[in-house]
User: Fold these one by one.
Assistant:
Number 1:
Amino acid sequence: MQAVVFDGERVRLTTVDLANPGPGEVRVRVVAAGVCHSDLHVIRGEWQVPLPLVMGHEGAGVVDALGEGVTSLAVGDHVVLSWVPGCGECRYCLLGRPAQCELVATVVAPNGVLYDGTSRLSKDGEVVHHYLGVSSFAEMVVVPESGAIKVRSDAPLDVIALIGCAVATGVGAVRNTAKFVAGSTAAVIGCGGVGLSVIQGAKLEKASVILAVDISQEKLDIATKLGATATLLVTPGMDVPGAMKALVPAGIDYVFDAIGKIATTEQSIAALGLGGSAVVVGLPPTGQTASFDPLALAEADQRILGCNYGSTVPQRDIPRLVDELMMGELDLETMISARRPLGDVESALADLDAGGALRQLLLP
């Protein structure tokens, strides 16, 4: 099949071999894959990953083959791919927290393999690794059964590809991580795919104020269309927390850092009102540290919350998000800035890196 391989130096579309699904696995024909900032972390060398690998971790498609023992899926099912395919047996899965699955965290993600410690991908007889148990920049994927979430068949597969990462993360950050209280005020720093999903999540959870913060007026205009009630265009040298507080004088109850830079994380904490929560949604490069005033945090009864994958329970949350899309409660089409063939991956990554793109879809 055709797939996008990163070897540590270049990203290229090439031919790779994909083995049949093993026990407890399914093969999915990919209809669309989303391009995410996490993919940029990989090619910049900011995250340590096994190489070479087939890129991509967001996507949707149709099941076309089943491994032995698969019971929850059938050939022809429409699925959204999840990059946290919980094992269902570890401590965290049993606690209802599959986003912290021990098998995913210790075997699948760091080693670029599936549950059994091996890869289904190869080229010229040499192992090629999976990225986050998905590798959606390809015509086909083999994933654990729990990594393919069955959804209704009338939903547009290209659009719902975004739900596998950006939307599940953003809306989940509001619902699951923050446990947002209706009527509260919210601010979102960064209006890319995840940030716009946070804004839509805050709207769904009935925020009284949603302040969108970004360096791009174009992105702020889109944020307003998707539910932001106020915007802040950041300019060089601006006191961002001070400007945010001025726009929400009642105090900001939840600030979501949807970028993950040290500066934006620190701004999120500094902008909080009394009793507020800063939710770190965007993921920074490995090894970086942020600073805050712990006395001020304690005296103001504030919280800093880490958010991995929106604290999502994929089998519960992803079908719900698809339903909300189909009911008109979510607008994902506005978040899509381009649809491109798989061979355009390098241009898609370059556009994302330049800051002008929202969510781009690669169509195998």
Note: The radius of gyration is 20 Å.
Number 2:
Amino acid sequence: MHAMFMRTLAIALVLLSGLTACTRGGDALDDILSSGELRVATRNSPTTYFTGREGPTGFEYSLAELLAEELGVELKVKTAFSLNELFELLRRGDVDLAAAGLTLTDERAMQFPYTIPYLQLEPQVVYVAGNHRPRNIDDLLGRQVVVLADSSHAEFLRGLQQTSYPQLEWQEIDTADTMVLLEMLDTGEAELAIIDSNEFDAQQSLYSRVKTGFKLGVEQDMVWYLQPGADNASLQAYVEDFFARLRADGTLERLQELQFGHTTGFSRISSHTFNLNMRNTLPRYKELIKQVAEEYQLDWQLLAAIAYQESHWDPLATSPTGVRGMMMLTQPTAKELGIKNRLDPLQSLRGGARYLKNLRRRLPKGIREPDRTWFALAAYNIGLGHLEDARVLTQRQGGDPNRWEHVRERLPLLQKSAHYKNTRYGYARGVEAATYVRNIRHYQNILNWQDIADNKPLPPIRIDDYLPAMLQGTKLSAL
């Protein structure tokens, strides 16, 4: 008991040392510039911040990284495991701002300075298909409703309860991750959840049985919050000008496309089928895919996504046109790549990986990542010649031939005689190529997000879990 108490006391003292307020004093923007650090609080989720193959990424992280680069300082990210913890980081002065997909609410506005909106989203009530669909507020009554604790949704429900629906009840889950709510629906621990539209769109593919019941209230503004009580005038003005410039030059739209452009256009059945295959079929080939991806310096999730799009991870797949194997290689392509048996999954994966790398290498140098990979995927589907035709059409129409989002819009023109008759290679199934790339991006992100769910960091240890009963609830300062 004495050893356990001393260990607990040591943990408490370490944590206590990190609780000291870090407010820098003076003008907030000047403090950031003089310290060389921009400290940002965020959440670990697919729509905000997570660690991918090439390091930290996510929409909010990308925005904060751009701001730090512009200021010429280093970005320091602190993740919170609950919304209360996130705002507590602001209150204590541990961070300069909170960039975490947060909506503007009256309650928050009374406590924290905030920026102009940079995006809008809609809160949605979601449920599991097959259960009674909620269509309005009345359908929340008597149901097991879950929301994130300290969220704008909890605040909205409290307002409803106080004004019109005194019998309304819900459960607040102390986490910052909406994936927890979706998991509760999926396992039957809850009947309904309230989630913002961007969060649901990004994660629905992992929970294909979950559907939108109805939109709750009006569209809400997303903002960044700043430290209360600090001299934020200059920092607030700078960030607002930063947002305005990103919107004006198209950067904000490009970031949205990069992070969320793959989430639209999928049926529930397609997502459900992918999830079944991810659980039942992928494990048989996952290590093989990882091996080949490492050999060719590719993201294994990308290679797995291509293999699923091509064959649903079926090494014996054969099409009416004669392409075969997990990566559905043609006979001439297989011969060129030195593949002797297209039905051998290892040979097929190596052939597909090598072919993709060759296509990516042969693209014009002006095309940068991640667009370069998406162009290579389109070429994997329709060939470099037709892809170049689409780039020419893009340039003729005033678009940027080195940007995937511009070329993607012109790919369908390769199916229209008014356009393809003036191209070098003629007709091509451009819509199919655009869909092909979208699908692979979507599947790759599901695999990435599944890794996030499987390897999500655990919340910090609660000291009360280790303290003797007589000391539980004691303030750390008293220790």
Note: The two ends are 17 Å apart (CA to CA).
Number 3:
Amino acid sequence: MSQANVEKLQSTESPRINIAHHLKKYNLFILLLVFIAIGTMLSSKFLSVQNFLNLLQQSAVVGIVSLGMTFVILIAGIDLSVGSVLALSGMVLSILLKSGINIFFAILLALLSGALLGLVNGFITTKLKVPAFISTLAMMVAARGLALLTTDGTPIQGLPPSIRILGGNVFNRIPVSGLLWIVLTIISILVLRYTTFGRKLYAIGGSPQSAHLSGIEVNRYITATFVICGTLSALGGIVLASWLTVGQPTAGSGIELDAIAAVVLGGTSLFGGVGGVGGTFVGVLLMSIITNIFNLLGLSSYYQSILMGAIIVLALVLNRFILKKQ
């Protein structure tokens, strides 16, 4: 083939490759813009600042939990216990506050309880060689039972006003929980992109054997991701209890599925080594906006669940289709 023909072929294929590359890279933002446009057409108040702040507050708990889930999925793991850990930590916080302990000390102990449960998950997975799916499933059942056992399944009410520290608003308008979620997302992005710890997580997710041969202590880093996930799940429980001013032992039921959906929708591969928390942040927002649109349409929650599942599957199929074409 002549040089002229080669250059002609490259010039015709290059735009297609670039289009596929940009679609793959920005398709989540395109979906976000599409649903924002739909919401705007349905309601003139959809693009208001107050509606955005409400979305931020409603998404914060799932968003914080999803950050921890992202770390675990990046190393090709899974954590099904996040909802139960959330509930137990919220109960720990409520019990401590009810007994008169200082709010900051109570938050610290509640966070430590989540970190401890994450450590147990990591130990069972790495040292006892139990698959993460099974070990965290067992923790999901055990932690939920413990949360119910603390008060025999009864919610804790009448908590002191100090609990509102993370569930209230700044300037009576901006949700503290939303700001906390944004700050934690930025910190997580910096950790994963610009630290040795983050690079090693990607290496482990890509190939644990190769990471081990290159000198990375794989088990230690895997355990660390479960501790991070447990701690952030506990923080989600603290934020939820602070927002509702109630310690609810049944809180967080099903949130693990929302977190996994948001992480995968955000572009993180379940096989590990690909993705990040930036995509997870957008994924959580996208799911919240879709739910908001469904509410504006007056759809039953049953239909909402069906359509949400279909949208998630279609988005993932689109990702794979574009990647294959590229």
Note: Residues 67 and 277 are 6 Å apart (CA to CA).
